[in-house]
Write the structure tokens for this entry.
Amino acid sequence: MIHRLQQERGSAVLFLDSRGKIFSKRLQKQQVITDTAVSELLVVMENAYNIDLVSNYACTRLADLKRRLNGLDVLRDQVKTFQPTYTQAINSYTFEFNAPILETMVAIAQGCPKFVSPLVTAFSNFIQWKDRIGRERALGSRGFFTYAYRNPEFCDRMISLMAEQETYLNSFMAVASPRQISIVQNIVTSKRMQSVEEVRDLLKANSPTAKIEEYSGEQWFTMTTEVIDELREAEIELVKGLYGPEGEADFSPKLLSEHDEKSSLFPYLRSLTLFSTLSDQELMELSGFATVKTYNKGKLLFLQGEPASRIYIVISGWVKVYNGLETGEETILQMLTGGDTLLEAAVFLNTSAPVNAQIVEDAVLMSIPAPVIRQRVQSNNKLALSMLNNVSLKSQMLIYQIEQNRLKSARERVGWFLLRLMINQDPDDGVIHLPYDKSIIASYLNMRPETFSRALKKMRAEGFEVQNETITIPKGKTLCEFCDSYVANDCKRAGQPDCPHPDFVEIDLL
């Protein structure tokens, strides 16, 4: 079903961009093939209901799919009359149909007791990788047909898709069994894939247009289709192996946990409130589904409106959570660092990302697939309560921060921020290191950069030594005047005899 929709998506894009001059007959033919696949899927879905093969959650997902598929003809009519742009068409096929189908596949597979869970996780990364190649086919076909690759923004978008593919492929390789790796490795090293890689290298290297113009939109479509057809064959083989054939029956999260990087993170995960209610075995199994990746400064983690496909846990570095404004400016909602989580509410509610997230300082993040989290939540009431508590806590912290930004003066906000840094960094020499750019700090504190600079200038007159990336505190308790109940909650001096504000009590955010 997904494979057929991916083919239809690519055909529709070329049909739209050529205003029907090419791919008209091919699109019609592909729609007939897709309809056959839809009919077959509907029969399978009905059988699943009748013999009670799937969980209540999966049944809900299947019902949602049925509703979505009923709207496929509406999209086709719009494409036929050239109503959507190519971007709108790609997004409609991707997020209205393919993404929900992919998520439902994984949810059903994770809930099937006959399937080996780590093999399902690897398969999930594989089909996400395959889908990104399908998007690359559609977008690239349009680019070659309209010469859009002359636009740097288009090339950046293509390169971003390639980076997503690399992420999912690496995630697959990290958790896949030897048999699964062998199946996929044959495609990665195939001549067809290498031909596609040659074109990708041209785009990445910003090669002369004359070299890129040797390829047409139809050529690119054919090349990538051949690769995707190979991936389809591999997909079939991978599905057959989800039962754990001979030689893989003992493949389990225990083997995955022996990976040094993940094993070393087990105590870290144990320390997180979100997972505090899980047993060691449950936490070990959950960590078996996780992937760990390093992100460079400036990398967009996800955008508002994208499907919340994973929950993220910050291990180190800094992540900016923000909303974009129509004016082109942005409002920073949160600055997250080690121990903080992202998208848990969206994953829990099965909704799209409500905000944007960007890496502002090189960071290491762990992520766990959304279907895995939702499956665990369904079977573990304590985990469900932990997630609700975590979401509630973050919501109240955000409300508190907004209130403080409105009530405090610029000097008080800067002092409050520096006090938090001092408590977290606990420097022996009184030197606080600013964790990210001053412009981001100013935006986070809801002030303009020049206002932030003036506040620092006033503090310099009070004995603070302000350097480019460091601020030296004149004496240990100087910043304590900016303390409040929220900050006192993390201060090791709170409630001690030398605390300047013994009246502050631990704030109850739950």
Remarks:
- Confidence is low (pLDDT under 50) at residues 245-262, 505-510.
